[in-house]
Amino acid sequence: MALDATENPLSGLYKPTRLEKLFYGPNCVQNHLLECLPHDSSKAFIITGASLAQKTPLIKSVEQLLGSKHAGTFSDIKQHAPVAQIDQATELVQKDAAIDTIISIGGGSPIDSAKAISYRSNEKNGKFLYHITIPTTLSAGECTMIAGYTKEDGVKTSVGHPEDAPKAILYDPVFGKHTPPRLMLGTGLRALDHSIEIMYHPTATEVPCKRMALSAAMDLFTFLPRYKDNPQDEDILTRLFLAAYASLGFLGLNMKPLGLSHSLGYALGSPYGIPHGETSCLTLAHVVKLKAQTDSAAASNLARMLPMMGQTRTGNDKEDALTVGEAILMFVKSLGLYKKLGEYGVGEDQVEIITQRATGGKEKGDPVYNAVEPLVKGLY
Asked: What is the pTM of this model?
């Protein structure tokens, strides 16, 4: 059971993930991937998506780097990690008992799929796979033990175990340069979503979790606009990868699900085919404003974000938290990521369904439902 942190008295529990190595910088994959393998005799299976496999040289380069240690590649992981592809990949991994390592390459869907495959491998034969990840977006799936995937009915679900969290992360801007800029920017807003929702998360510790979330937000506000102007700059990409890690990597194993913006993201993402980075662009600013108006403890912590966004606190936490929400909205617009929900083809007849999914099945009349429904309507 997770232990909540408190502010009066100041108390909490930081329980690190089982991460063993985090490399960052140009060509760190080429220089350090092999030393991340757990054994000299290790055999590694790659999990990735079709775009990286077919439209970039990245997957072939990793296969060649692994040489005889490469046991196979599954390159059909789709957006939101559908369970059908996870089933297929798990079956392939199970065919070779020598495979002890899984290497995820890509964004949140391949990373979460690899976690789910490892989880299932343990269910089948009592052995988790050693997970190495090479992220190419800022979605920060590499930061937690939770494997989110999409069921046959289009609804997101998850599994999780401490051994699912990656043991090695390689943030290589050479890989990030192949990511479409809109995808990178959108997942950057997802990282900002993590850092914001950490500030009022029940188990988030003051150190290192909230302090790193503040740092992450400052770097995202600084470097995402610079990335937009120069998406091939390796130093900017590396700094953004590290900001993504700082946004979520210190929540650790003492954790509960993230807040309303993430719940809304799950309700909007896989059911309607909206990328999770773009769901954060839709929801985050509005959730912050709602929190500012309805939760004084959350407002107090959200107000701490204002200097990270280049603005000065007034001392009025509610007003400062509302300003944080407005700053996020303006930031989304400045990056060219602003859209209304209707522009994704989601009709207003879906408001009740979205609200119910985001609130864990609450019905009209419930106070939580009644608070969230106007927010959902405001997305149109």
From this structure: 0.96
